[in-house]
Amino acid sequence: MNNRVYEPIEPRRVAYIGLGVMGAPMARHLAAAGHQVTVYNRTPEKARLWVQQHGGRAAPTPREAAHGADAVLACVGNDDDVRAVALGEHGAFAGMTPGAVFVDHTTTSAFVARELQGLAAARGLQFIDAPVSGGQAGAENGALTVMCGGEAEAFARVRPMILAYARAVTRLGPCGAGQLTKMVNQICIAGLVQGLAEGIAFGACAGLDMPLVLEVIGKGAAQSWQMDNRGKTMVADRFDFGFAVDWMRKDLGLVLDEARRNGARLPVTALVDQFYADVQSLGGNRWDTSSLIRRLRSLEPR
After folding, report:
1. Which residues does the annotation mark as catalytic?
2. Domains of the chain
3. pTM to 2 decimals?
4. DSSP code string of 281-301
5. Greatest CA separation found in the chain?
6. What is the pLDDT of residues 8-47, one digit of tens each?
């Protein structure tokens, strides 16, 4: 059941492309807020079921989904997936009306964001790169943080729509700035989760009551979202939820590629990326990112 209260807004015709664990609830919030939503998904059955539950219409191609829409929003897998749904004869750009805005919620490279912005502009379209933070729970609860890059006028037009599933929507600068900000977000998370994993592993080896330890230090300077939301499950060795290791490695790959271009030094991020590779070798591809502690436990003497 959706108990969220939505701000009054003029209903718009919107298309949503990609009904995965993030996209499906984001599109649901748009429909609940009163927008006319047309959806497209690579697996048509998902789109059919979504319409059955939430109304609106399913389209057989991104182009047809985008036809007549004020805004087209997408959340797919990676750079190539975004190109696939945006470009070509059946892509969204081919169906969009001049002046319409394409909003990409996928975490991609800043390069592809700028590439698509240029191709959109050549067609008289507008493009916003708008990666999100908050995970599946944030999407389900309409509490995502959205980091945007693009023209101010286009951002102002789509911001009220995005607020249907976000608690914060901010323009950081020109196209690409949203993706670069998401990279900063992932750099900070990677180092923090590794530090939290090491702290919990250390405390366990020292024989401490770790739930109590986390309760105490969570009231001081060590407090973080990761500690509050993942500390207890790390102690309990539970990782069957949340943001998958495979997704984090994809994101950190984008970060490290960008660092090679801009000259930033990221020694801790590069190291944690390799630690996530170790977690993958343990079979943890779909475990939550907090599973870094599982790697430390696998290294402990038996």
Report:
1. 182
2. 13-174 (3.40.50.720), 181-299 (1.10.1040.10)
3. 0.95
4. HTT-TTSBGGGHHHHHHHHS-
5. 65
6. 888 999 999 999 999 999 999 999 999 999 999 999 999 9
